[in-house]
Design a protein that fits this description.
Largest sheet of chain A: none
Distance between the termini of chain A: 26 Å
Number of strands of chain B: 26
Oligomer: heterodimer
Structural class of chain B: alpha+beta
Largest interface: A-B, 15 and 20 residues
Number of helices of chain A: 3
Strand content of chain B: 35-45%
Structural class of chain A: mainly alpha
Radius of gyration of chain B: 20 Å
Number of helices of chain B: 8
Number of domains of chain A: 1
Helix content of chain A: 55-70%
Strand content of chain A: under 5%
Shape of chain A: globular
Mean pLDDT of chain A: 90
Radius of gyration of chain A: 11 Å
Chain lengths: ~60, ~375
């Protein structure tokens, strides 16, 4: 499977930034500080379970 | 004038308090932020500052040196008072045992009750968070990471110091002093505000990818699939034995949009490297080289002034490693003078927080 990480990153950014470009930058920075560089993931990136687990934890906190 | 600063280098805590009260005078203080040298007993000074300003919300922390408009100080207490025009509303919460996963949630529940709004929905243009953490707790990454997950409100602050003794640091909230704790405050300023995050480094274009780490201990075991100390020394072109002498001038940084979030090496342990803040496996770090703190800071303050039109107050959290470098280069006076015309307080910290936990940086909250 591929592309799940990009999907999750996009979902986090959309949910939290709500189209505010300043917030998009801040949320990307927060992800990078967690060790997840949003620019490195595309629709064809492998579904790395360790990264997916980190992103799931972020999504859980946001609820 | 809706923000007032004061400082005292007097001998006893009673003399310091008297000095502070005489400078702040009849000002109607809603919020008082203060930073105190650890030479003043933390539990006593915290209580006395609160007693001196009984109607105010009060928070702060201990230091490794203080900053006030125009000066870098030692063994002093610096304070900034805000009236209700500058800060419409404020809520302070203490997070004890900050490594506990649930401790931030408890504080956030209190903020939500006070401001009658979920923290996730609060407008970061209208609210700002401040954070001061026990500088020896090692809890900063977890705290700021959790805070960042729960809200878009920006939290800015730093880690308390103890004059480089590394024995005990304290945070203050409403008359009490705490260790192994963080103080969080959410402010609703009545005036526009902005942030400065400034660090004086350039990217040398050499990458160090964290391939093995003990994240809990801030330890990098391998960079680029090699023992960390060896890989760091190699990119510098020096022997491993020489590498520690380069730590202050050549830390590493996570580049975000070209701007470094600095991670400072602390020491070599075996073949690993310990850092002053967190490093994560997979993180691509860049080798940095120090540039001109005075010039960069002056520009950052000028830029903030241009943004806001004018500045009525700055809270400056300046990394102790910057302070040591300024001392070493005999530039402390020049640094203080950058803030001569601006009501400023600050302190030398064991770590800085802005979006994440960082090193060798100054984080500043700036009010119009």
């Amino acid at each position: 499977m591929a592309g799940k990480i990009k999907q999750m990153i996009d979902s986090i950014i959309n949910q939290r930034a709500k189209d505010n470009p300043m917030l998009v930058g801040v949320i990307k920075s927060k992800l990078m500080l967690k060790g997840i560089d949003p620019n490195k993931f595309t629709a064809t990136s492998d579904d790395d379970p360790a990264i997916i687990a980190k992103l799931e934890a972020v999504m859980k906190e946001m609820k | 004038m809706y923000i007032k600063t004061a400082y005292s280098t007097k001998g006893t805590s009673d003399e310091v308090i008297q000095d502070l009260k005489s400078q702040i005078g009849a000002f109607d203080t809603k919020l008082l932020v203060f930073f105190s040298s650890p030479r003043l007993a933390p539990n006593i000074i915290s209580q006395k500052v609160q007693n001196a300003f009984p109607g105010a919300q009060v928070f702060g922390c201990t230091t490794s040196g203080e900053i006030v408009s125009g000066k870098m100080l030692k063994n002093s207490l610096v304070a900034m008072a805000f009236d209700a025009t500058a800060v419409n509303d404020v809520k302070i919460e203490v997070v004890e045992n900050p490594k506990n996963e649930n401790s931030v949630r408890k504080a956030f529940t209190a903020f939500e009750g006070h401001f009658k709004s979920p923290m996730a929905e609060m407008d970061p243009a209208k609210y700002v968070g401040m954070i001061f953490v026990d500088g020896l707790s090692g809890a900063e990454e977890k705290l700021i990471d959790k805070i960042g997950d729960l809200t878009n409100v920006t939290f800015i602050g730093g880690s308390a110091g103890d004059d480089l003794k590394f024995e005990a640091t304290h945070v203050f909230a409403n008359g009490k002093s705490f260790s192994n704790a963080a103080v969080l405050a959410v402010l609703k300023p009545g005036v526009p505000f902005t942030f400065i995050k400034t660090q004086s480094f350039c990217d040398l274009g050499k990458k160090l990818v964290v391939t093995k780490a003990n994240e809990e201990n801030r330890e990098v075991i391998e960079f680029n699939d090699k023992p960390a100390a060896q890989a760091y020394a190699e990119v510098l072109g020096v022997d491993v034995e020489e590498a520690p002498n380069r730590f202050m001038h050549n830390p590493v940084g996570l580049l975000i949009d070209g701007v470094p979030f600095v991670r400072s090496p602390q020491r070599i342990k075996g073949s690993s490297m310990l850092f002053y803040c967190g490093v994560t496996e997979g993180m691509e770090l860049s080798l940095l080289e120090s540039t001109d703190i005075i010039d960069d800071t002056r520009q950052a303050v000028a830029h903030a002034k241009q943004d806001l039109g004018s500045i009525s107050g700055i809270i400056n959290i300046n990394c102790i490693l910057r302070t040591l470098e300024l001392d070493q280069k005999q530039l402390s006076d020049d640094y203080g003078k950058i803030f001569s015309d601006v009501p400023t307080i600050g302190f030398s910290s064991y770590g800085e927080q802005y979006i994440g936990h960082i090193n060798q940086t100054a984080t500043m909250l700036v009010f119009k």
